[in-house]
Design a protein that fits this description.
globular; Arc Repressor Mutant, subunit A; 11 helices; Rossmann fold
Length: about 375
């Protein structure tokens, strides 16, 4: 809300009531009201994925490829290269500021070189040089939000910065409170300078029984309105999934898959990643179960056993059964062990039940009349009665 702000002037009586309610004490306070600004068109660093003017957060487990992704972003910004999903818009190369405490400058330089970045347009900020009165020199690591004034000074000196990368947020924030405050201030900072801030954060990522992605982090992330997660494809450990998890200011796009080849991100834009089933585990279980039951009815134990061999959980298979409209039928009983049969074809199920009745009837020595009723041999009945 960047509209005009104005002070609501109060009478002496209103002021006294307000101070009593607010507990202002010896300070004179007046409400500050703001008018809504006209809607502003969204501007993007990477269209529909990484916005300008706010923080984007990329979460994921260790070794998922978070650093590789942000280095790829830095490389594209500093060279003006096109984005991987077919956007052909021409861009001017811009400067990127990387805040990173884990890697020495040489390591970061090597990784950015592998990503194809223009290293002349990259600046690395990790420490302050401090000296005491005796001229003893020491290094102090960057901390946020305390060092935001220094960050502002850097941007005043380098006005062509288009992207700030923080890898990772937990390295520059010691507590959850600091992380929350840093995200809030970085959002304001990004809006003020019309740039993108992309930060990484460690989190646990898993897939539930319906194939949806679930992210669990020990850090507060609500202040980031644009969040993505990285996950390892459960069917291919060399493939990574880049999935949006919160974009409450626009329609969420599909995710993207990628692999890491020789230290460089290789995106696969031709195979979009579904938001609702990113690992395609649900789609795979649904297709497999549909094909299995199209051939024959299958006992529950066999369905679960065959599905487990393909990596499908019991919950996945139950949900897939519901999606394809399969039915359960109880079989056996009395002298036979009872079991459940999964069926997709209702007509075939009825035929199987009639066939089962026929077998039971013939085993009893009876016949099936044309109307489907069970008739008993009269001689056998007479013998039994006698």
């Amino acid at each position: 809300m960047n509209g005009r702000n104005y002070v609501l002037h109060l009478t002496d009586e209103e002021q006294s009531v307000f101070e009593k309610v607010s507990g202002a004490g010896d300070r004179a306070e007046s409400p500050l009201l703001g008018e809504l600004a006209p809607p502003v068109e969204l501007r993007w660093l990477w269209k529909d994925r990484i916005p300008l003017g706010q923080v984007s957060l990329i979460e994921g487990p260790p070794r998922a490829g978070k650093s590789f992704v942000v280095h790829d972003l830095a490389a594209r910004v500093t060279t003006g290269a096109r984005w991987p999903d077919g956007d052909d818009e021409q861009r001017e190369p811009a400067r990127c500021l990387v805040i990173c405490r884990q890697d020495a400058g040489e390591t970061l330089d090597r990784r950015l070189a592998l990503a194809g970045a223009d290293r002349d347009r990259v600046r690395h900020f990790s420490h302050f040089l401090s000296a005491d009165v005796k001229h003893r020199v020491a290094l102090r690591p960057v901390t946020l939000p305390a060092d935001m004034p220094a960050l502002e000074l850097l941007l005043e000196r380098h006005s062509d910065v288009r992207l700030i990368v923080i890898d990772s947020l937990s390295d520059v924030c010691s507590t959850s409170e600091q992380a929350t405050e840093a995200l809030h201030r970085l959002n304001s900072f990004a809006a003020m300078y019309s740039l993108a801030v992309v930060t990484t954060l460690r989190a646990d990522v898993r897939f539930d029984c319906r194939g949806a992605v679930k992210v669990k982090s020990t850090w507060p992330t609500a202040a980031a309105r644009c969040t993505w997660c990285l996950a390892v494809d459960p069917d291919d450990e060399t493939r990574r999934l880049f999935i949006p998890t919160r974009m409450n200011f626009c329609i969420e796009p599909n995710g993207l898959g990628f692999s890491i080849d020789a230290g460089r991100v290789a995106w696969n834009p031709t195979a979009p990643v579904s938001l609702h089933d990113p690992a395609q585990s649900l789609s795979g279980s649904t297709r497999w179960l549909s094909g299995l039951l199209a051939e024959r009815d299958v006992p529950s134990r066999e369905v679960y056993r065959l599905g487990a061999e393909l990596g499908f959980t019991v919950d996945m298979l139950k949900y897939a059964k519901k999606k394809i409209g399969a039915h359960l039928h109880k079989m056996g009983g009395f002298s036979e062990p009872a079991y459940w049969l999964w069926s997709l074809n209702a007509d075939r199920r009825q035929e199987d039940e009639r066939s089962a009745d026929d077998r039971v009837t013939r085993a009893d020595g009876g016949d099936i009349s044309p109307d489907g009723k069970h008739t008993v041999d009269s001689e056998r009945l007479e013998a039994v009665v006698c």
